[in-house]
Design a protein that fits this description.
The chain is α/β, with parallel strands linked by helices. The protein is about 40% helix and about 15% strand. The chain has a seven-stranded parallel sheet with strand order 5-4-3-6-7-8-13, sandwiched between helices. It has a two-stranded antiparallel sheet with strand order 1-2. Helix 5 links the parallel strand 7 and strand 8. Helix 2 runs parallel beside helix 4 and helix 6 packs across helix 11. The structure holds nicotinamide-adenine-dinucleotide. Nicotinamide-adenine-dinucleotide binds next to helix 1, strand 4 and helix 4.
Amino acid sequence: MATDNTAWQVRANPGRRTLVTGGAGFIGSHLVDRLVELGHQVIAVDDLSTGRMANLVDHPSVERVAGSVLDAPLLDELTSRVDEVYHLAAAVGVNTILKDPLRSLRTNLHGTEIVLNAALRHQVQVMVMSSSEVYGMNTSDGLTEDDDRVLGSPLLARWSYAEAKAVVETLAYAYWRNEGLPTVIVRPFNIVGPRQTGRYGMVIPRLVGQALRDEPLSVYGDGRQTRCFCHVREAVDAMVALIGHPDAYGQAFNLGRPEEVSIRELAERVIELSGSSSSIQYVPYSKAYGEGFQDMRRRVPDITKLRDLIGFEPRLGLDTIVMSVLEDQRQSRTAELSTLGGRG
Ligand SMILES: NC(=O)c1ccc[n+]([C@@H]2O[C@H](COP(=O)([O-])OP(=O)(O)OC[C@H]3O[C@@H](n4cnc5c(N)ncnc54)[C@H](O)[C@@H]3O)[C@@H](O)[C@H]2O)c1
């Protein structure tokens, strides 16, 4: 049986047992939703540092585990009960990384090694989430998977996430190459949708939150830097199609939607779609992130490799993406207000 809501085919796989690390996070919880729809038995493990158990669907096929990927015995036990692992647990978001680069490095490096070790012991497929951050400041028109990386000094905390994700990729590749473990590497480019929070530096939920509160929308720098946004629903379908594909092992894939938008245009779109009376306020990078912050002017994925392998063709455009975040935040605000009202 296959579902037809996307161009590519995502197959139902009743009874398949899947572990999702970081399962209570933004992408993780959408992945869990999709896996449940496809008939999987899912274990979601999360230390709840940025995720929330409330993100997870309440369903008999989902086992929730509050714990860390740094807990090797726990990971070993969970992995012994599954057929595949999606490894999403990571310290994520520019704010998180700038605040505590050491924690980010430990989770992303040591955590990944623990996950890969457990997968090797129990001989299960693994998908590791890298990031488009590995390309650093390479502003080429359509980054392909084997393009060069352009990074600032390793002493700038801002690049520690990119450094760690690059090592994560090298590790996953080495486990495939040297040990024959079926690993797949994914490099997401700004995945967005409901449940993503603006607290850790993600731009769309942050701007949407400001618009709904009728506050000025803070756009960093001159706002002419561009980004590409992809809806999380399409991203998780691509991940499911990819993990089971034998031609994907030992390889990295860009995951995103190549349409570029400047942050200034994005802010204008958010104001219009929300009907907000907010204005745009330009904030220097030094004020937003401290002195010495290096940003990239653009980062555009070439998704030919993913398209050729699984037929990936993202169709949900920017307005749909922004509207889905608006709707989600409106619902959360209404729920919060009714809770407060109930207390009063
Ligand atoms: N959202 C994006 O656009 C994007 C872009 C590039 C890469 N990624 C990668 O995708 C993955 C998911 O990101 P997300 O956007 O859903 O962010 P997220 O913060 O919502 O998800 C990460 C999850 O990992 C959990 N976590 C952190 N440390 C942990 C630990 N030690 N043990 C167990 N759980 C832990 C967090 O609580 C959170 O639920 C991450 O690996 C991230 O690096 C996301």
